[in-house]
Protein 1
Amino acid sequence: MLKFFGQMMKDILVYAFLMFASCTFSKGQSKTGLPKDNIKPEIEVSITPNVPTGTARIIEQDRSGNIWIAAFDGVFKYDGQSFTNIAGHLTSYRFFSVLEDRRGNLWFGSGGAGVYKYDGRSFQNFTSKEGLVNNEIFCIYEDKAGNIWFGANGGASRYDGKSFRNYVMNGDSMIEDRTGKSIPDFTRPPHEITSIIEDKTGKFWFGTRDNTIVYDGTTFSVFTGIGKPTNVRCIIEDSKGNIWLGGNGLWRYDGSTSTNFSNNSVLYICEDKAGNIWTSSQKRDAWALLRYDGKSLSSKKPTVTEMSSHAVIWSIFQADDGSIWYGALGVHRYDGNTITHFKSKEAKY
């Protein structure tokens, strides 16, 4: 009899566990149809010294695996163990951009002090006195030929390692400027160059606070392939050769047709190794980190998962280990299970 009741109790416990697991799984599936491990992750706080205490504008990784963060209070290096502010002593201006070039040099773009080149030992500062079109640098890009492009307030500069060639906004488009004159700092025209890429065909794309401009090496033209996107803050080319633009909406352009996925404002776009598209998108009175499932992007209504929300999310980057880093107030890392917010004791948020 005791053996009978013992077995019955075991059966009841197993049944209860299976029912709990089934209900829990169904609850996770009810809204998105996604597996349980794709529901919105929890956020953990890691109190860490020497991290950005304010806005983190861009995140990159160098060839040695170090993570670099351009932030309003410096440029921070994360070596996998700790953070170090490499450039906080250089200027009181905010930093907006960072890039490692093919030679291993790091470039830091500031909001008023031009750009700094760092070879791992010393810094070299380039400003309008050296030929830079403007001292407010919003983005940095290296093209296939090894030229470094700087997106600035009112134009762009191309640096070949010896000298600058400048391109300035002219009406709705751009022209090359051969006068050698720089654009006065802090004039804040609606022509800030916010994003630069070179696509697989060799064309350059410039995102501005006004139009999107395409340069074929000879002529600049306003891009009209998807209507007239404005306030474009980010442009990427995905692994299939599609051009994605984020601004007053989210678009994908395949070279002939365009798809509009959202009319909400978008600040940043990133493609991960699995082909998923991540965006920083405005959602009501906040900004959300969204993941568009790559397998469903052929649909006009792909599967979208909201991973996190913040006051503003400025940048998104996937590291070599697959983790997703993003910059908001401070810097965050998503490892596939948990979002870690690296935060200092001094931070008030």
Protein 2
Amino acid sequence: MNWRMITALVVKDVSLYFRNRFFALITVLGVVGFVGIYFLMPATVDEQLVMGLYAPTLSAAFIEELQGEELIVVKAESEDALKAAMLQGDYNVGVALPADFAAKLAAGQKSQVTVYFTSDFPDELKDAYAVVLQELAFAMTGRPLNVDVSEEILGPDMAGRQIPVRARMLPLLAVIILMMETMGQASLISSEIEGGTLKALLITPLRVEGLFVGKGIMGVGLAYVQVVFLMGVTGGLSREPILILVALLLGSLLVTGVGFMMASVAKDMMSVMAWGILAVVVLSIPSFGVLLPGTISNWVQAIPSYYLVDAVHRVVNFEAGWGEVGTNLLILLAFAAAIFWIGVVVLRRKLR
């Protein structure tokens, strides 16, 4: 294999890539913009529950006793005032207690309580306010409710250590940056195929294997450098840096294979963009499962980028190590090798 020619090919490809003003611009703006978006997002999570309360028979001192580090109770003057404050966005939950609430509880009778939620309130958080009402009833009667409550936490206990949105968004930004560079490489290869440049190169001592090695080094290297820069600036390399670097390298190999496949079916930059946007959407789906937990089921594991996203998320946000994400890396390696090989095969057929 002629490494001197491969090196010249890589240098030539990098030069042509940055001569394309569009891809050169989105490369710089993309990295800078994503870093800016990351630091503009909140760095902490507010874990306090804010609840409006209309309780005509409860004293202000009693309501004050209900408040704590995790619960803020805002007293409303009337039920209408409670609903008006919620519509203005003061809080997302309101509780209206009837005038005979305390008397009925003391007598052991059931009492009707109205709980208001705004239309955008998450369903999974509504049960938390049912617990608040149980605590309220206990505080007023001095007796526990006639129920047995058992508590079990599925998965990591996130109490007191909720993950900020920007930390959840980091895997999504990494996938998008990887795919942006792949679209640029695919556009370059497509234009060289249409112009006959690649066939001309094969007339020289450069063999087909050397051609794909050079293209692979350029694609993997360009994507890898930029995603590593993103992770480094945002603090993503502060925990298990070698593990993160390996995962990102496999991700770069994966998207380079995707780029080869796009170049084999595209004829110009516009068709590359069309295929590229489709690829970005598909490969980004696992990231939305991290950004919005519970929105995606297990079928997402069929998407190769899931294993990159999951590995980065668990290492950066849950301090996982090689033992916890080793299986992810092996599956990602298998996907990356298979897709890269398929990309080489389909692109090689187009060169014939």
